[in-house]
Prior knowledge:
With 270 residues, the protein is mainly alpha-helical. Helices cover 65% and strands 3% of the residues.
Amino acid sequence: MPFLEHLSLGQYVPTQSFVHSLDPRAKILSAIALITSVFLASTSLWPYFLWFVVLIAISALSKLSLKTIMASIKPVLILIIFTVLINLLFASGEELFRIFFISITKEGLAASIKMGLRLLFLILFANITMMTTSPIELSDGIESLLSPFKRFHVPAHEFAMMMTIALRFIPTLLDETDKIIKAQLARGADLDSGNLIKRFKAFIPVLVPLFVIVFQRADDLAIAMEARCYRGGIGRSRMKPLRWTLSDGLYLLTVLLTCASGVVLDKWVL
């Protein structure tokens, strides 16, 4: 399974850069704004060129190569291709050409391209946020953003911790999957040949130990948290309190203006 090699989905990359030094709240809000603007674009393809420029700019400011960031597409490439094909093959409209009994329409082609780009930028913007934000910063940022809801008895700390653990389990899960697949291949398992049903049956020896390992990791995490006397967010302090600076405000403002420009391009530029 070569597509599982060198994965970077959800993995934090520690380095000294402008983006790494930003307040996690600024990065989280910027990612939400970018992802929202991507899904608001429904007419033109011009905004996607703008968001690609934004991606290059953030990549440069974070000192991460575009190749490293683009590597996050690999685990979900099949999902993107499947979504593109669904939109391409089953959309009605003006027919462009026909392949046997399959009709390819103008509307279907446009919808498939836009949906593929939406998923692509959603994954990239979310991943670059996790690559430049440590697990502790991510948890603190989410908790701080959710803190106004505490008056409505929303457990902000627990919710932030749950989201952070779920996000950080993704690279762990993929790494364990890669190890199990390599072990099965070393034992002579054939996972890449045959039709879809045969491949699924051949993959069962991978799924069973994977589920066992996931539960073991979850149990180890629970024991580690209990050993460190974790009792929720009540009374907890931070070694590095979050501080909003001018750089954070300017970064968020720049992203918001870029998102607004993308929406304007989509609505008023052909």
